[in-house]
Amino acid sequence: MDMTRSPDPSGAESTQQLELAIILPTLNERGNLAPLVERIEDALGSGGWEVLIVDDNSADGTADEARRIALTDGRVRVIQRIGRRGLASAAIEGFCATAAPFCAVMDADHQHDPALLPLMLNALKAGEGDIAVASRFAEGASMEGWGRPDREKLSGAANALARKLTGVELTDPMSGYFMLPSETARALVPKLSGIGFKILLDLLASAERPMKVREFPLNFSARREGESKLDRAIAFDFLAGLYDKTFGKLIPTRFALFGTVGAMGVIVHMAVLSLVLFWFDKAFTVGQAVAVLSAMSFNFWLNNWLTYRDQRLKGTAAVLKGWVGFCLTCAVGGFANVAVATLLESRGLYWVIAALAGIVVGSVWNYALSSRFVWGR
Ligand code: GDD
Ligand code: MN
């Protein structure tokens, strides 16, 4: 067994104080971990840092692999979360779990070059900025395996929006690689939404005074192993961030999304209901039941794409399981929906009003349970 990389168990090296925590959010990154810890050691030397692997119960056994590494390397620690998901919340978990005065967040898939870590740390220690950000768009940066011709345009638009949102000038507000004093990060945590993966943007937008950003050009590499968990709907993240910072306190972003999707579901519901009632000439109860099922499937699909895009169920099996789960948790809500609507309609209430009343009863139930049991894992 290779013990050469671990700090001396006699404590000879423990004189080097802990300075930096490198937070690695992971979802199915098993094979990437050991080589990454080696690269971090190459960049930072043998001591003064720790790696915090925050794994959301990956199916490929990432947490076990992390524990295997940690067994012989005291600088590596593992936080395994069960029943929770999300890159942003994993980073927050890391901020709160370290004693190191500085913390960095980086991808575990080798897209982010650890060689920047000492440069970022030195810059922060020298007071060159409040936060160090590795940028894919800064002067001197490069991107391997992600050659989009519209890159400049896209980054220009993103830049302008981010400036509005955060009051800071930066070329890559969606970067997943940055470093800041741990205390600053923790102080901002209560203001963060924790949704999605726009954690850097969220941090910058939550600061009371605009942060001074020190950028580092990043040579963005191709992923070493496995596949990406995020999509590139950057515009959506900006809109969500914008909403979060303006109306988010009033109505939480996630709830607003769920409500919007629900409202669209009402349109689907009404369309299907009127179709069954007037085209196929079936009874109201039948129409209402068919409409509930259609709207439910539509809502599941759209919520999976929008509301829970940071926890999106992917692959036929997972989506099917999620759909069944969504239908089951909604079954009681759906039953109440049909019952309430039928009752009201039989009492002479106009069919549209009766159906709407059913929908309100059903949706409250849906939100409460589905966020916990379908996308919460
Ligand atoms: N714990 C946890 N939970 N980790 C996650 C989750 C999650 O739900 N989703 C993704 N991760 C981990 C991945 O395992 C990886 O280490 C890191 O977060 C980034 O995920 P990737 O799937 O590699 O993201 P990407 O390469 O497509 O996206 C990159 O670019 C984005 C901007 O375009 C990342 O750098 C993002 O941080 C960045 O915002
Ligand atoms: Mn990646």
UniProtKB/TrEMBL annotation:
Organism listed in the record: Altererythrobacter arenosus
Claim: Transmembrane helix is one of the keywords in the record = yes
In terms of InterPro entries, this protein maps to:
DPM1-like, Glyco_trans_2-like, GtrA_DPMS_TM, Nucleotide-diphossugar_trans
Top-rank taxon of the source lineage equals Bacteria
Instruction: Give the transmembrane ranges.
Output: 255-280, 286-306, 318-343, 349-369
SUPFAM superfamilies per UniProt? Nucleotide-diphospho-sugar transferases
* Membrane topology category: Multi-pass membrane protein
Protein name (Swiss-Prot/TrEMBL): Glycosyltransferase family 2 protein
Name all Glycosyltransferase 2-like domain ranges: 22-177
The family classification in the record reads:
Belongs to the glycosyltransferase 2 family.
Quote the subcellular location field of this record: Membrane
Q: What UniProt keywords apply to this chain's record, in alphabetical order?
A: Glycosyltransferase, Membrane, Transferase, Transmembrane, Transmembrane helix
Give the GtrA/DPMS transmembrane domain ranges. 258-375
Keyword tRNA processing set for record = no
